[in-house]
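Issue 218. Parser rejects a valid record. Input:
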Amino acid sequence: MTSSVQFPPRDQLPPDVAIPRLPVVGTTWYERGPSYWVRRAGATLFTAVMLAAWTAMVSAFVRASGPAWSPAFTGVLIAEIVFSLGTGAWLFHRMGQPESQRWMPSVRAVGIAARAGSIVLIVLWGIAVLLSYGLVLALFLRSFTPVPQPERKARRLLADKLQRGPRRVPPTARSGGHPGSKRQSKR
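Output the parser choked on:
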């Protein structure tokens, strides 16, 4: 685990602390019981199927470039290997970073191309993504990490909430509004 805080059982959490839902695993990450591991295994199996389908698609593209070991075939094969390794390494690294730093440069680049009206750049970017084996390979390899990045973030935030203790509600919040506001609850 990434934090030194020992999480209490779910039913002993303070009432103001909610367990956040994460993609794929929901709230099962809190206990990491059998349901959690079944969901994680399902996600890994799904990425393995995607990897097999992507392998078939990319290999069909490479085989369509010409007879085996012809100059065109060899050039496309080498380009695919270099491109996939580059994008795979880049994505594997980016997926391990905090969300705030993760996708912004690539998203901005596509947004800039779209605002500039360059459909050609967007289409080329889409083709590059489809032909990059690195994307699916990075997803597959990241599915084996012991504590995925979203779970690590949720554990850290929950540990911070538990260490701070229960939130104290000021009397004005309990009374229904600010003392100077017109709408206050009747006592």
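Fixed in the parser; the record now loads. The CA atoms of residues 98 and 153 lie 8 Å apart.
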